[in-house]
Amino acid sequence: MTSGPNIALLWRGQAAEWTHRFHEARQWPIMQALRALGATARPVLYRDEAVREIRDELLSCDAVLVWVNPLDISGDRSQLDPMLREVAGCGVVVSAHP
Q: What is the superkingdom listed in this entry's lineage (predicted)?
């Protein structure tokens, strides 16, 4: 038996904010639907100070669905976009390829 794709759902946030509240995220129904189809779907919370660690985590995925507003007051995408291009260049499907 083969396992389904490993899909990350990425949005901006701090892990401490979401540790026990992922079911409240607007992405939760998408995670549940992907899991029902046999995929491994997991949240990945983006923050600029952890860009290297997040890149390493995304490189272990088959795809990443990205929800990071480029105009958000909490930050821009100046570090995120190059990292997503690198991840995509390594074969990971990126939904919001910069």
A: Bacteria
Q: Which helix (H) or strand (E) holds 52?
A: helix 51-59
23 vs 90: CA distance, rounded Å: 30
3-state secondary structure of 65: strand
Q: Does the residue 14 lie in any domain?
A: yes
Q: In what order do the strands lie in the sheet with 40-46?
A: 40-46, 6-12, 63-67, 93-94
pLDDT in tens, 3-40: 899 999 999 887 666 555 667 778 889 999 999 999 99
> Into how many domains does the chain fold?
1
